[in-house]
Amino acid sequence: TFASWLLAALLALHFLWFPVSWLGSAVGMPWGNLMSVEGIRWYSSHMRDILCTPALAYVIPLIVLVGAVERSGVWEMLRDGFSANRFHLTYRQRRALGFSIGLFLFFMVAVFLSVVGPVPVLLSVTGQVYPSPFFIALYQSVPMGLTFSLMAYASLCGHLRGWRECLSVLYWGVGRHAVWIFITVMAVWLFKVSAYVCGMWEVPASL
Q1: What does the pLDDT look like over 62-80, one tens digit per residue?
Q2: Is 28 exposed, middle or buried (0-12, 13-18, 19+ CB in 10 A)?
């Protein structure tokens, strides 16, 4: 698959930097040598920071949402509807879909009121939207609201039975698409290793 080939390419480029950085420094290029004492210490001291990269805060919510769409049965509903050019929903599906849409809208209204309501708890201490807890958590809040709405849909329409199956909506995507988490970590790691070798000491803190 594409993800497997991408992961293999990132791994190959990552480990290729070790001999390349050694050869570059050996011929007098102003590169950081990953095989020197300083390079090994830099590599080891940055492992934890790279594994805790903030980039995962954007990838994991998206993976969870994709998995929720797949597990809840919404993906099959959309696929069958578009293939037949007609959406045929049962009574339970219509009721469940209406409730889940209403639940998501209620969640978004609550988030919106936390900014413009009488008590704007998600604004910054200076009363600004940016930067503020609202702006920082907006990307994560929307997938979270959609995921719980999809879990409600799957439960009410009978697609999933029992609380264990309903809870699987929350982690289904992590199990099926975990490779993208590792791809994100390896991409950030490759970027920071490349920055060290090429002398770009100042790398974006958002990574």
Answers
A1: 999 999 999 998 888 877 7
A2: exposed
Residue 67's nearest CA partner among 155, 159, 150, 152 is 150
HEC-encoded secondary structure of the chain: CHHHHHHHHHHHHHHHHHHHHHHHHHCCCCCCCCCCHHHHHHHHHCHHHHHCCCCHHHHHHHHHHHHHHHHHCHHHHHHHHHHHCCCCCCHHHHHHHHHHHHHHHHHHHHHHHHHHCCCCCCCCCCCCCCCCHHHHHHHHHHHHHHHHHHHHHHHHCCCCCHHHHHHHHHHHHHHHCHHHHHHHHHHHHHHHHHHHHCCCCCCCCCC
The 10s digit of each residue's pLDDT in 80-101 is 777 767 777 788 888 999 999 9
Give the Cα separation of 60 and 181 in Å (integer): 7
Count, residues in the chain: 207
What mean pLDDT is reported for the chain? 87
Measured between alpha carbons, how far is residue 207 from residues 16, 184, 186, 204 in Å?
Answer: 22, 10, 12, 6
In the numeric block, the tokens 């609202």 are attached to 134
Among the listed residues 68, 60, 207, the one whose alpha carbon sits nearest the alpha carbon of residue 140: 60
Question: Could you read off the pLDDT of 113-133 as tens digits, one per residue?
Answer: 888 878 778 877 777 777 788
